[in-house]
Amino acid sequence: MFTKAARYINKAVSYPSDLLSGISMVAIVFVMMAVVVDVLGRWLFHSPLRGAWDIITLAFAVIVWGPMALAAFKGAHVALTVVVDRLPRLPRLGLELIIASVTSGMLGMLGWYLLMYGMRLARRIAQTGVLKIPVAPFVYFAAFGCLLMVLVFLARVPETIGKIRKEQ
User: Fold this and answer.
1) How far apart are CA 96 and CA 93, in angstroms?
2) How far apart are CA 119 and CA 57, in angstroms?
3) How high is the pLDDT of residue 38?
4) Following DSSP, what letter does each residue of 95-129 receive, concatenated?
5) Which residues of the chain carry a pLDDT beneath 50?
6) What contacts 34, CB < 8 A, 6 or more positions away?
7) Which residues contact 148 (CB under 8 A, 6 or more apart)?
8) Is the CB of residue 137 less than 8 Å from the CB of residue 98?
9) pLDDT of 114-133, one tens digit each?
10) What is the pLDDT of residue 55?
11) Domain residues of the chain, as ranges?
12) What is the pLDDT of residue 9?
């Protein structure tokens, strides 16, 4: 029962995680192109790309938050498990359950605060300095990535309970 619930959550999280990761890959290419154009413009024409800092700064919000849920989903994020791996089965699974629950709670609060911050920025119509790009959509993107990561870690809770109960 618990592992089945985990599979449903993982299935629901899979596509949005891939989508955000793909968007972040496009943002990386966009940053590389902006830097090249900026450097060549400075060197060849003595005129840098106007607003390069705005573009690169906002793109990094996408680059950082985009692939985080996919990395957590695939277990590719950095984890120090030297001590946890040496524990017996039940204490290890209990600790994994606590870690997944606490991580979900903390990421949930962070996602909520990012969402509220994005709403405040949208009300104030906050924009970048040079190109006047609205900042709120990028904060919403970060909040969505964070809340998606909450679902990834929440899926680990029933999955770990299923392992404790020895479900298939």
Assistant:
1) 5
2) 20
3) 94
4) HHHHHHHHHHHHHHHHHHHHHHHHHHHHHHT-B-S
5) none
6) 49, 52, 55, 56, 59
7) 13, 16, 17, 20, 69
8) no
9) 999 999 999 999 999 999 99
10) 93
11) 2-164
12) 85
Token pair listed for 58? 């906002």
Quote the pLDDT of residue 31. Answer: 96
Reading the block at residue 87, the tokens are 């524990």
In this prediction, residue 168 carries a pLDDT of 56
Q: What is the structure's pLDDT at 79? A: 75
Assign residue 48 a region (left: φ > 0; alpha: ψ between -120 and 50; beta: otherwise). beta
Q: Name, in order, each residue with C-beta under 8 angstroms of 146's C-beta and a sequence gap of 6 or more.
A: 65, 68, 107, 110, 111, 114
- Tell me what pLDDT residue 162 has: 86
| Crossing angle (nearest 10°) for helices 136-164 and 89-124 | 160
Q: Using CA of residue 80, residue 114, residue 29, residue 148, what is the dihedral sign?
A: positive
**Gyration radius from the chain CA atoms:** 20
